[in-house]
Model the fold of this input.
Amino acid sequence: SPVKTFLDAEHGGDKHVGGMLAFGPDGMLFAAVGDAARTPSPARNLSSALGKILRFDVDAHPAPPAGNMSGAGVNPYLWAYGLRNPWRFSFDRSRGLLIIGDVGQNAWEEVDIAPSTSSGLDYGWDTMEGSHCVSSGCTSVGHLPHVEHPHTNGEAGSIVGGFVYRGS
Done:
């Protein structure tokens, strides 16, 4: 079969490029894309592909799959947004979860967990780093992380994610 291009995003950076593709339990192709470490971050811009998890139907492309975010100016492949650098993610198929390792900036690293059927979740970057406001006076936004690790105590320098394994 012919080669299909699913994403051609002008990233423009050499940092925070994201970095994985995986088929979800629904048979759709999920793609992690980082925000290019740009300031301001495009992670909350719903028309941009950067700082997102995107979802594609490989059989019906370029038609976006049902269940993705939609609306005027919204990238039709958008599944989740507000991510800095979702380097790795995995599906816990037995529990129906999407687990995202999202690289932080200066202070916090995070692991985000949500139902794999929940589209449109905002993970808060660049207003929040983990569950903490990036600038003083902000109001908490987004789906807060399940786990976060601080840089201050040497506990974490970067979270890259991994895979769920249930077995002996």
About this structure: The CA atoms of residues 37 and 131 lie 19 Å apart.
